[in-house]
Amino acid sequence: MIKSVRGMRDLLPPETETWNFVDTEVRQLFGLYNFQEIRTPVIEDLQLFQRSVGEETDIVYKEMFAWQDRGRAESEKGQWLALRPENTAGVVRAYIEHKLWDQPGLRRFYYVGPQFRRERPQKGRYRQFYQIGAEVIGPPSAGSESPAVDAEVLEMLAALLDRLGIKDWTLELNSVGCADDRRRYNEALREALKDVVGKMCADCQRRAQTNPLRVLDCKVAEDQPIIEKLPRMSDYLDEKCQIHFAEVQKILTALDLPFVVNYRLVRGLDYYTRTAFEFTHGSLGAQNAILGGGRYDGLSEALGGPAAPGIGFAIGEDRLVMTLQETAKAETRPVDIYVVPLGAGMNVHAARLARRLRRRGLVVVSGDESFRLKKSLETADKTGARRALIIGENEVNSGRFAVKDLSTGEQITLNLEELGKLGGQP
Length: 426
Ligand code: HAM
What we know:
Elements: H1 15-32, E1 36-37, E2 43-45, H2 46-54, H3 58-62, E3 66-70, E4 77-83, H4 88-97, E5 107-116, E6 128-137, H5 147-163, E7 169-175, H6 179-196, H7 202-210, H8 224-228, H9 239-254, E8 260-261, E9 273-281, E10 289-295, H10 299-302, E11 310-316, H11 317-324, E12 337-341, H12 346-359, E13 364-366, H13 373-382, E14 387-391, H14 393-398, E15 400-405, E16 411-415, H15 416-420
Parallel strand pairs: 1-5, 7-8, 12-13, 12-14
Antiparallel strand pairs: 2-4, 3-4, 5-6, 6-11, 7-9, 9-10, 10-11, 14-15, 15-16
Helix pairs in contact: 1-5, 5-9
The protein binds histidyl-adenosine monophosphate.
Histidyl-adenosine monophosphate binds next to strand 6, strand 10, strand 11 and helix 11.
């Protein structure tokens, strides 16, 4: 038997109804903030992620599905490609490629789609997972650097979680400063790590060399007391970054939006500047980040575009749906009518009637003329249908059909006109 590939999973009904419910709510709410949908390809040039997410991040270094494509000629080697591990890089690439900065004001995009990371699968962590994300990007003259944008994005997220009925989330917030601040902070970290790194895990030893900031991400218990004593980013923010971070917090406080400042929150992607955040949820276990995001003020330039500061986030939809499952908001629409074709030649009539009823908005399932009445009614019951509509030769000739209410057993006779008025959703 061929099975699904490790880390890839099937989303099955009725759970898919919950996914659809989430997507619908997202589209409605994001629309109120003037976000518009963008769809970028799942395959991109590998360099896009090396230059944005960063070559030294776990995502690019360890977790990419990447391969060298075939060239045009049989013998020729082609371009290095990758399945996207995230969507911010693709959105910024599209922003540059299509000169979307040409239009006035800030651009607000959102996306919903699969992302791919070759991580060790576990609860809440898959190799194909889905993100709902959004990005606000634009020239500085349009106000793209304003802390008000950061606060608005965070407020939208809180509104979404509220709307979905998700409670008990925690917003963790930090500022990772601008590129200069981080350079100075990285040096300080490197210096401080020199004496202690020998006692740390193998990953930290590598990170201390290549990307010391990542050390703060380490989850190994024995390393925690060492990390607690390392210098803090907050002491290396320049004045502008300090003011920016203070202003974001001021607006959030004025909006009664609760948050905690977590000075160790550095995120797993290199493009971040200034505001970085995550929303966590207790019920999720080890993979408790329901979403993450932040500013990326230099990303457009790093990808060859104009200055276009931006901020965004991505929600792990798999994890979001997990938190929703207990409340199970979405319900599958019940079957209104189960059509029972009784006797040879009746499938044709059943198909015609079913089409007619569906066009009137009813959920219709059809049986088969080879079934006997008893089997048909049993099947109708199993599909959860509210009514069975019986179609035999007499019914077709007279234009009057027996409709049986499957919960009460009551049977009535209706003509075509009356059938159409049976009503859809309860
Ligand atoms: P990220 O923190 O790498 O950020 O991913 C965002 C969210 O995606 C995570 O908080 C988590 O819920 C979900 N996620 C990540 N990996 C997996 C996985 N293997 N299985 C299930 N869920 C997962 C980004 O991707 C940035 N692009 C976010 C962003 C947008 N920053 C600015 N704009």
